[in-house]
Amino acid sequence: MDKKVTKDMLIGDMLVLDRGIGVILMQSGMHCVGCPSSAGETLDEACAVHGMDCDKVLADINEYLANK
User: Fold this and answer.
1) Per-residue b/e over 9-28, b at no fewer than 16 CB within 10 Å?
2) Which of 1, 28, 30, 64 is the most buried (most CB within 10 A)?
């Protein structure tokens, strides 16, 4: 089964799915990935807080997962 991330997934669940997602989030500007409270935020919420384009981050993550 192919792994895929959605906007409503929690950051913590995404990192359990694949730790490499943390690198993508940090490279995108989300440097708080290691913060305990970030684990309970959805990707959409975290992107909104950081002023990031959620669709772009989501595409980058899913491209990474598809090419693994």
Assistant:
1) bbbeebbeebeebbebbeeb
2) 30
